[in-house]
Fold TetR family transcriptional regulator.
Amino acid sequence: MTEQVTLTPAAERVLEVVEKLFYDNGIHAVGVDMIAAEAGVTKKTLYDRFGSKDAIVRLYLQRRDARWREHVTAVVERPGRLGPKRRILLMFDALESWMAAENPRGCAFVNALAELPDPAHPAREAIDDEKRWVLDYFRTLVRDAGVRNPHKLAASLFLLYDGAIVSASYGVLPDAVSHARDAAAQLLDSAL
């Protein structure tokens, strides 16, 4: 897992600006000059604090991942006696609410992967960590539900989940998450 860095309030503000710039415009379309201008700091300050644009990209993705995980777990782990199937399907509810509020351009991690194909890029670990966490969370939920072949079912749910994100971002199937949730329910019914 990527290491989490404690940031000053000023650095947090820079990353708030960076998150909007990178997500809205793409990583390669945003230069250090644009970041400095939008954040109201000098390029020297950016380099002194963050070291490089690659480090800023890595922190942007780590920060978004932390917010994403917090959102998902808040939805799935909310108080109440929910059955195991419902908890798994709540993953799709979490995705739907996140996408409505945060994701008009699709998954930030899929978008970043498209721009950063080099596996040695410093931000690739953050991309991999986010995807691995979603798969592992499905594995945990499926295992807790006591299904047969938990790894196979978790992989299928993960593919539905990630596929729904990408499909919804095309705009061709705006209710992709709803369809994925329905397909997940059918898979769960056959596995439970």
